Amino acid sequence: MKRNIKYLIIFSLAFVLSLSKGIGKSALAESIKNFQSNIKINKDGTILVEENIHYDFGSLEKHGIYRNIPVTKENSDGKIYKLDTYVQSVIDEKGNAYNYTTSNNSSYLSIKIGDVDKLITGEHIYVIRYLVSGALTYFSDHDELYWNFTGNEWEVPILSASSKVEFNTGINSRFLNVVCYEGYKGSTSQDCLKNINQVNNSALVSSSKQLNAKEGITFAVSFPKGQVNVLEPKEDKSRLIDQISSIIVKILSFLWFVLLPVKILVESIKEKKFTKKHEKILPAWFEPPQYKNKVVFSPAETGFIIDKSIDHKELTGTIIHLAQRGYLKIKHEDKNKFILIKTKNYLEDSSIKSFEKDILNIIFKNKDEVNVKSLKDSQSFLKSVQKFKKSIEDELLDGQMFEKKPSNIEAKMIALGVVSVFTMNIPLAIASLVFGRKSAKRTLIGVEKYSEAKSLFNFLKSQDEKLDFQAQNQMFFEKLLPYATAFGVEKIWAERFKDLNMIKPDWYDGEDFSSVYAFTAMSHSFSNSIRSSMTPTSSSSGFSSGFSGGSSGGGGGGGGGGSW
User: Fold this and answer.
1) Element (DSSP H or E) covering residue 354
2) Which of 394, 417, 439 is a domain's end point?
3) 286-292 — which CB contacts under 8 Å span 24+ positions?
4) Given Cys at both, which of 27, 67, 283, 532 links 561, Cβ 3.0 to 4.6 Å?
5) 3-state class (DSSP) for residue 520
6) Is residue 286 part of a domain?
7) Same domain? 432 vs 448
8) Domain DUF2207: where (predicted)?
9) Model confidence band, residue 179 (pLDDT cutoffs 50, 70, 90)
10) d(CA 48, CA 37)
């Protein structure tokens, strides 16, 4: 009896093992032995993808495979953007063409490969080549390809996967960065292998293990700005509207291909000659310009009259100027932490200019204290800075400094530049983006005030010892410090006063200063904090970066496939 039980147990175990082995063979009857992706990033902003899929049908009889390629991607705001995808060829490893058909819906381009009248088994290699427009993402400090190269929707396992990213722009490999994610969709595992090839300046990504069905690999490769053209994806609309819009833009761009660039260039040259003819720039000028009513130009107005633009330097100079006049106090708690404290009610103050009220409203809103760093997270702050610039232009326009608003001209030129890049009209793009803003013409009185502002700038940046007669005067140093900050020459200005023992001013709360250098270091650090607050971190279309919060299945690309 015991012997029979023993034989029964052995037989049962053998049966279970053989059954599990058979199930395993059945489950692995189909697989992708190797999935290799070669991607070239082109200068025009497109990417060329070549997928080498080594598919093993096992003993199953099938017609071929299908590959589903996503033609949309979603940004962080939930908006869907269209990726124009064009299949160039489907061949085997020897270059022989396969029969294939394509179908397209709102989400996928489906490639069905094989012959309906023919059944195949065993191993076959499929080489699919396609071109994608809009796959790249453009950020303020870098550009990026965030791409799911295998897809997470394959019905069969992938035994080995790898991808190679190359550039047709001659980029140096030391400027490349790569990160990758492996696993099921949403996985943040970075077990996949990555490498930068120093020889051919390419990025390499490969699997660390066999990928099960529905598993995949996503990578992000970042590279410096300016290497490729900006080719943003279009928001998903009907193809008819896209085609009509594209035709209209191309026709308009062609009609103005020569005339408009020449016109912009001529207007810029005329403005430069007009200013040159009437300017009277002195080696040194110790006072900011004044309007006809003797109202003194603020640091922001003085900076704008010179270069017709506003950035963090003018904004910082304005804040320091307002602090000196008692409207706020700058509290320096540590190296990069600045607190702005409201010290005076400015709403009913007639001596303060409208754009100065704007900047105080932007900063404080309904608060009495604000951390400068917190402004970076406020989208309203970034938008309000544009209102600040508009108010300065209104002030200068009312003072008859310009014939037309520079920002209106600049906005038109930027829009024209974007259209010209889209239609590959390079002369128009250069003319509009390089010379467009400079064509905003100053009036005669505007040129006079430009001359005074330029003379003040010359004085502030000069190292001429003959101009050091005020080098022991802290009031004189403080008076022109906001203007030096607006010009970006505060360090040079401080050099004149290197031997001056500073007394901490009332508008500043922080460490005591024994020299002007420490004071200027504070000003420089404060300016950098303001600049950081004015710098957005998302891409122009609202896409997130693969280097921050990325995952398997994220970015563009992806999809999957199977056999039929």
Assistant:
1) helix 354-364
2) 439
3) 286/456, 286/459, 286/480, 287/452, 287/456, 288/452, 288/453, 288/456, 288/483, 289/449, 289/452, 289/453, 289/456, 291/399, 292/399, 292/445
4) 67
5) helix
6) no
7) no
8) 31-223
9) very high
10) 10
Q: Do residues 159 and 70 both lie within one domain?
A: yes
Q: Which of 287-301, 306-320, 532-546 has the lowest mean pLDDT?
A: 532-546
Q: Is 365 helix (H, G, I), strand (E, B) or coil?
A: coil
The single residue listed with the structure tokens 């005591």 is 512
Give me the mean pLDDT over the 1-19 stretch.
47
Q: Structure tokens of 376?
A: 């970076």
Q: For residues 47 and 532, what is the distance between their CA atoms, to the nearest angstrom?
A: 32
- Find tokens 């120093």 and name the residue: 198
Same domain for 302 and 366, yes or no, is yes
| For the chain, percent of residues with pLDDT exceeding 70 | 79
From the centroid of its chain, how far is CA 19? 56
How many residues belong to the chain? 564
One DSSP character per residue, 22-64 reads HHHHHHTSSEEEEEEEEEEE-TTS-EEEEEEEEEE-TT--BSE
- Quote the domain boundaries for residue 249: 236-278+406-439
Domain-located, residue 539: no
Look at residue 550 and tell me if it is in a domain.
no
Q: Are residues 184 and 310 in the same domain?
A: no
Which domain-ending residue is among 219, 235, 251?
235
220: pLDDT strictly greater than 50: yes
Same domain, 77 and 132: yes
Convert the pLDDT of each residue in 39-56 to its tens digit.
Answer: 999 999 999 999 999 999
Same domain, residue pair 420 and 345? no
Paired tokens of 420: 């010209």
CATH number at residue 150: 2.60.40
pLDDT of residue 16: 44
Residue 355 lies in a domain: yes
Q: Give the residue among 132, 134, 143 at the shortest CA–CA distance from 228.
A: 143
Placement of tokens 């467009």 in the chain: 436
The answer to whether residues 328 and 394 belong to one domain is yes
> Which residues, 6 or more positions from 142, have their beta carbon under 8 angstroms from its beta carbon?
222, 223, 224, 225
Q: How many structural domains does the chain have?
A: 3
Q: Which residue would you say has higher pLDDT here, 12 or 83?
A: 83
Q: Kindly calculate the radius of gyration of the chain based on its CA atoms and give it in whole angstroms.
A: 32
Q: How far is residue 305's CA from residue 442's CA, in Å, rounded to a whole number?
A: 9
> How far, in Å, are 64, 206, 446 from residue 394 at the CA level?
68, 57, 14
The mean pLDDT value of the chain amounts to 81
Same domain assignment for residues 249 and 182: no
Q: Give the Cα separation of 473 and 467 in Å (integer).
A: 13
CA distance 257 to 427: 7
**b/e 441-450 (16+ beta carbons within 10 angstroms → b):** bbbeebbbbb
H, E, C per residue of 188-254? CCCCCEEEEECCCCEEEEECCCCECCCEEEEEEEEECCCCCCCCCCEECCCHHHHHHHHHHHHHHHH
Q: Which two tokens stand for residue 377?
A: 């997270």
